[in-house]
TrEMBL record:
Entry keywords, A to Z: Isomerase, Phosphoprotein, Repeat, TPR repeat
InterPro entries per record: FKBP4/5/8-like (IPR050754), TPR-like_helical_dom_sf (IPR011990), TPR_2 (IPR013105), TPR_rpt (IPR019734)
PROSITE patterns: TPR, TPR_REGION
TPR repeats: 59-92
Keyword Repeat annotated: yes
BP-aspect Gene Ontology terms: negative regulation of apoptotic process
GO molecular function, one term: isomerase activity
Species for this entry: Sciurus carolinensis
Protein name: Peptidyl-prolyl cis-trans isomerase FKBP8
Record-linked PANTHER family: PEPTIDYL-PROLYL CIS-TRANS ISOMERASE FKBP8 (PTHR46512:SF3), PEPTIDYLPROLYL ISOMERASE (PTHR46512)
Length: 165
């Protein structure tokens, strides 16, 4: 990669520059494949993004990026990427299998979340004891203020921790 990048500073013809770009793309794709095998997901995403900057329709980069996002649980980001890859190469069985698995997982996750939210909303047990049976608007101000203070404190702590990293 260093040799390719340093060579780009020389005077070249358009054809030579295109060949160099093709070589860089192949190297980045190979690097992403190696990083994927080593479970270096952040690096895979970076390598794939570099490939996709130059070649937005690169099947390998799209597939690997979608696969990594899926492994990280980022289903809503991974699905459109894998669909784009499948649209470019509809006969690719690996992409089709990965997309199929991912859609099933995403559907199951959504169903679980929906059931959890439904349970939370239909069961007033999460309200303080003296508020049970009352409308949500009659929650005591002390309780509402306390939960807001705790939430803001957690948010401030997260900002401090993030700033330290």
């Amino acid at each position: 990669m260093k040799a390719i990048t340093s060579s780009a500073k020389l005077d070249m013809t358009f054809e030579e520059e295109e060949q160099l770009l093709q070589l860089k793309t192949k190297c980045l794709n190979d690097l992403a494949a190696s990083q994927l095998k080593l479970d270096h997901y952040h690096s895979v995403l970076r390598s794939c993004s570099l490939v996709l900057e130059h070649q937005p329709d690169n099947i390998k980069a799209l597939f690997r990026k979608g696969k990594v996002l899926a492994q990280q649980g980022e289903y809503s980001e991974a699905i459109p990427i894998l669909r784009a890859a499948l649209k470019l190469e509809p006969s690719n069985k690996m992409i089709l299998m990965q997309l199929s698995k991912l859609v099933k997982k995403h559907t199951a996750q959504n169903s679980t979340e929906k059931a959890l939210y439904q349970k939370m909303l239909s069961n007033p047990s999460w309200l303080p004891a003296k508020c049970t049976g009352k409308s949500a608007w009659s929650i005591p101000w002390k309780w509402l203020f306390g939960t807001t203070a705790v939430a803001l404190g957690d948010m401030a702590l997260s900002v401090v921790i993030a700033a330290g990293n």
